[in-house]
């Protein structure tokens, strides 16, 4: 089973960009679909973006389509989330997840805070 560690969160102004990274330990990274979820204060954790084991399929929540891009580098055991045109509503703790398929989370990272200011 992989272990996941997120990084790259922080404070950014609305309209700015951030890139989140999720580094996975273990030699089974390529067997997992990977995803990003987020949880805003007082709200449930929700799906943001996912990428298949091959990297050939990606899915996005409607709220981030056209602004966020998920990618993976199996040589580096890392999945990324490039976030552009950030909005105040994007403020949340972002969690990396590994699962059997996109949208399924069998393993969670510890989360990284993203705060978008006006």
Topology:
Layout lengths: L3 E4 L2 E4 L4 E7 L8 E7 L6 E6 L6 E3 L7 E6 L4 E6 L8 E8 L7 E2 L3 E6 L1
Outline the structure in words.
The protein is mostly beta strands and 118 residues long. It contains no helices and 11 strands. The strands form 2 sheets. Strands 2, 4, 5, 6, 9, 10 and 11 form a 7-stranded mixed β-sheet that branches. Strands 1-3-8-7 form a 4-stranded antiparallel β-sheet, with no helix packed on it. A hairpin with a 4-residue loop joins strand 7 and strand 8. The radius of gyration is 13 Å and the shape is globular. The mean pLDDT is 96.
- N-to-C order of helices and strands: EEEEEEEEEEE
What is the count of β-strands? 11
Give the mean pLDDT.
Answer: 96
Pick out the low-confidence regions: none
What value does the Rg take, in angstroms? 13 Å
Classify the secondary structure makeup into a structural class: mainly beta
Relative strand content:
over 45%
> Residue share in helices?
under 10%
**Cα separation of the termini:** 40 Å
């Amino acid at each position: 089973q992989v272990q996941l560690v997120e990084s790259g969160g922080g404070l950014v102004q609305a309209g700015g960009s951030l890139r989140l990274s999720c580094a996975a330990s273990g030699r089974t990274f390529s067997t997992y679909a990977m995803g990003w979820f987020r949880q805003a204060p007082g709200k449930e954790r929700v799906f943001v973006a996912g990428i298949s084991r091959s990297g050939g399929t990606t899915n996005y929540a409607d709220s981030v389509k056209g602004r966020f891009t998920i990618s993976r580098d199996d040589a580096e055991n890392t999945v990324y989330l490039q976030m552009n045109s950030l909005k105040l509503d994007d403020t949340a703790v972002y969690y990396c997840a590994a699962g059997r398929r996109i949208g399924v989370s069998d393993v969670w990272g510890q989360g990284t805070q993203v705060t978008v200011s006006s």
